[in-house]
Design a protein that fits this description.
- There is one protein chain.
- The model has no long low-confidence stretch (mean pLDDT 89).
- This protein has 292 residues and is of the alpha+beta class.
- The termini are far apart.
- The longest helix has 19 residues.
- It is 40% helix and 23% strand.
């Protein structure tokens, strides 16, 4: 497979040729000192088995995100292991070394950008130039990268502005989806992941935080602390959101009754269910039925 890109500009010389497939776009490769935030280029690359780059600096700020494969990364002298979910940034004055695992070549997204707000955007995402982090689940931010690439490749008059706004959204999403790197927090985060997956699998029958904690062999106070640290919300709020999302979908089906849907979601009392539903969506269940 050959690399593909928009045809309006020649690929810059900092792009590696050691790729088996790439989908790229170029919007503005001439940084303006007056720009607030502008996307220069971006794309997704499937690296060849010999992929390796070493640069003492880079003309733009950049965010790269690994979705497949593995490899190693060195930013400003600090080494990191690359795996699905790894995200890292660099920019002017930051040395980079990136190499793929030969047996499991990297597949990674990248966005290069410039402007007076570039550092602020990265700092807000806790990803200042020269640092790395991890995202959970690994595919969480892929849709945003895909949307940036789609709009960048269209080349419409509004593409540059749309891509800049999507980049800001990406920074917000990185903040929300950030996970700890391997280290002393790894065990706590793994416990959180296990509990989150348990809730997602069994949310219809689960009734309380105490039940979740018991089934996950944890103290309910510790379970709440884990969610506040990694999910920024109590576990019960997420449990209720899953139940209500399911209920909203069921109420859209022909013949669905409020009482029946309430029982499916684990509510013995239809009126309690209706109050919770309205607190989440702002409308009662019967109003959802009328929207069919």
């Amino acid at each position: 497979m050959k690399a593909t890109s928009t045809a309006t500009e020649t690929a810059p010389d900092f792009f590696s040729t050691q790729v088996s497939h790439a989908q790229r776009f170029y919007l503005n490769l001439k940084p303006s000192p007056k720009a607030r935030l502008a996307v220069a280029c971006g794309g997704v690359e499937r690296c060849a088995s010999d992929y390796a780059i070493s640069r003492p600096t880079f003309p733009f700020y950049s965010v790269e995100y690994v979705v497949e494969g593995g490899g190693r990364l060195k930013l400003g002298g600090t080494e990191h292991r690359l795996q699905p979910g790894s995200v890292f940034s660099y920019g002017p004055g930051v040395a980079q070394e990136i190499a793929t695992d030969r047996k499991q070549p990297l597949v990674k997204y990248f966005i290069d950008f410039f402007g007076t707000e570039s550092k602020t955007i990265l700092t807000s995402a806790h990803l200042r130039p020269g640092t790395a982090a991890s995202v959970f689940p690994p595919a969480e931010i892929v849709p945003l990268f895909d949307e940036i690439i789609r709009n960048g490749r269209r080349g419409t008059p509004g593409a540059a502005e749309i891509c800049a706004r999507l980049l800001e959204a990406l920074a917000l999403k990185l903040t929300e989806a950030r996970a700890p790197l391997p280290g002393r927090e790894a065990l706590a985060f793994a416990t959180y992941q296990h509990c989150r997956e348990h809730i997602q699998r069994h949310f219809l029958r689960l009734r309380s935080v105490a039940q979740v904690a018991e089934e996950c062999h944890l103290d309910d106070t510790y379970l709440c602390r884990l969610f506040q640290r990694y999910d920024h919300q109590p576990p019960y709020r997420w449990l209720v959101q899953l139940k209500m999302n399911h209920a909203a979908e069921r109420l859209q089906l022909p013949g669905a009754m409020v009482k029946q849907v309430a029982e499916e979601a684990g509510f013995a009392n239809q009126f309690h269910f209706s109050r919770v539903f309205k607190s989440v969506f702002g409308i009662p269940p019967r109003a959802m039925i009328k929207m069919r």
